[in-house]
Amino acid sequence: PDVIDGKTFTSTVVDLNPWVEYEFRVVASNKIGGGEPSLPSEKVRTEEAVPEIPPSEVSGGGGSRSELVITWDPIPEELQNGEGFGYVVAFRPSGTTTWIQTVVTSPDTPKYVFRNESILPFSPYEVKVGVYNNKGEGPFSAVTTVFSAEEEPSTAPSGVSATSLSSSAIEVSWTAIPWKMSNGRLLGYEVSLL
Question: Region Disordered: start and end of each range (predicted)?
Answer without folding.
Answer: 35-64
